[in-house]
């Protein structure tokens, strides 16, 4: 069965101050499809990503999100993850004292135990082999596994670590929030090629980016533009090229200021 | 409630409570309660008087000098008021405590001779497995006395002595007499006096000059009986250039009435020697854990205390190092977890008596459900002890708004050229950290546990592997155990 994530008329605000950010987002992502999400700074892309993952900083005020027909918004963050949603963060936080390997082993075992409460988790040798494989395919140095999660990582290292986690957890729908930013030219190629390998029939992707360069490696099936908390324009891969060339002004003119939610 | 394998069933508890009600104890009677069939050789009456102190000594066939030490200590105990600093000891009722009990009559030499019920308990604690892999010698304390003692021959052939304290007193009375009470005089404090009066069990270790024991020596302790006081007494002598790592792990099932654990640990490290003493304690929430631990480090010697305190109602423990010889080094690494209704008053005492000595204290405490963690530290530099370096780091992690952490550092410096650092921090688990971990599929409890384990990691990695795992598991249990 092809997993489908359906976002319908989603409205969300900042819990702390009631500021409304998402003002009616509609988007459907299927396993196997690559969607690029672009749009000016502050338009709500990261907010959408966080809301989909269940970040408690935001409150849903209207709309719904369905994962294969089930109410995603009813699920806790960890359930969403185990159901196959993944978010590669724009700004991953650091967790002192917790190694990347140990963290991932727990994450995998949490999945196995959710499927089968009797499960003893993945045997360590198997886990180690799997980690090595994934690190090799993403060009990640093996020493990474023993480092504390994001602690003292450079911007680019954090992004690689996010992609490594994605590779290990094998999500059905992956949201990547500016995973291309902060990477040097070689790293961009390696990481983008890695992501490209991960996409395919098994994974649907929402790739949030500002630049075409990432999309040179991962050709999107759809490109969407978010402005003022709404998706205002959708198209094929050519839309990204168009934006690269012309910027966002033509869209601002076309759609003007959004109606207040 | 989370499954802890070794917590007795509801039925066992009820059986035991009713058994206890029937106890009209006489020394000769044998009682079998808890863990179903373990037979206790002696159950003394609750409470203490001089006669009982003498009886304990007599039952152990101790030399006269030890009896006199005990009796003198008993009077010192009586004379000293209950300390009013630190934690609240005023609810501690000394008359409701059993001061002596032992599970079997003789100390077993061979694992095969250990009664099956006791083995079963050890099984549940994972000891036989640990034995195969890690143990060089086992001295397992079941209630007051060791029932099992085993020292590998290679150690014995090197002249290492590792036995329970009662046996040491019988077999090596001269060494015991030479050192007993020299590091911690009975009158050091009320609880060292009490321990000296009624001590039973504990470990005795002597490591000859130049001998390095590569694998940790281990002992397990357990309070098994309601109102059972444990007063073990440990003496470790590390001779010149020798090395030993001693590990004690304690777990206790939960009981409803108050229990007292009051140990004394004395360590002497001679020139160039090194000793590491690791403790993981997980007392049930009704135990008063009042322990006096002190080491003297001679020239170029190193003492390291690694101390993890979980559970108990109140823990008061401040491992001490006296840096007596030039070039010596002292370290105290401590972890405290204070849950609901618990007070962990833990810390360290370092006394720099000689020049060119160094010390380091790292304390990490965790507070949850209104638990209280206090760091109480004393750093003393005596006159003439010049060129000293000392560093103190205290970090607290609070899991909610009702838990509490304080630090009470005392510093007394009477010397020149002292470099010292003191850092203290209190932090809380960030919502963004929890969200991040949960976004990878960990439950909130697991995410909390992971952050806590990460916070403790710099100290946990100092523990032998199996203890690190056990500690992580215990912490997980503490974190989950708050429901209700
Ligand atoms: N937790 C928050 N508290 C306050 N304001 C917030 C919060 N989260 C988002 N916002 C505001 O919502 C708007 C959208 O932010 P968001 O991070 O979603 O933008 P973005 O499209 O990802 O931008 P960029 O391209 O710069 O990453 C911004 O004005 C931002 O300041
Ligand atoms: Mg963003």
Give your account of this protein's structure.
The complex is a heterodimer of chains A (261) and B (484). Chain A is 37% helix and 25% strand. With 261 residues, chain A is of the alpha/beta class. Chain A has a domain at 4-92 and 171-255: 3-Layer(aba) Sandwich (Rossmann fold). In chain A, strand 9 (222-227) and strand 10 (230-235) form a beta hairpin. In chain A, helix 5 runs parallel beside helix 6. By secondary structure, chain B is α/β, with parallel strands linked by helices. Chain B has two domains: 38-443, no CATH class; 444-484, no CATH class. Chain B contains twelve helices and 25 strands. In chain B, strands 7, 8, 10, 12, 13, 15, 17, 18, 20, 22 and 24 form an eleven-stranded mixed sheet that branches. In chain B, strands 6-5-9-11-14-16-19-21-23-25 form a ten-stranded mixed sheet. In chain B, strands 1-2 form a two-stranded antiparallel ribbon. In chain B, helix 2 runs antiparallel to helix 3 (64-79), helix 3 (64-79) runs antiparallel to helix 9 (190-198) and helix 7 crosses helix 8 (173-179). Chain B is globular. The N and C termini of chain B lie close together (9 Å). Chain A binds chain B through residues 53-57, 76-78, 80-82, 86-87, 89, 92-93, 95-98, 103-104, 106-107, 110-111, 114, 148-149, 165, 169, and chain B through 430-433, 435-444, 446-447, 450-451, 453-458. Residues 14, 16, 19, 21, 39, 41-47, 57, 90 of chain A line the site of adenosine-5'-triphosphate. Adenosine-5'-triphosphate is lined by residues 14, 16, 19, 21, 39, 41-47, 57, 90 of chain A.
Quick recap:
With about 260 residues, chain A is α/β, with parallel strands linked by helices.
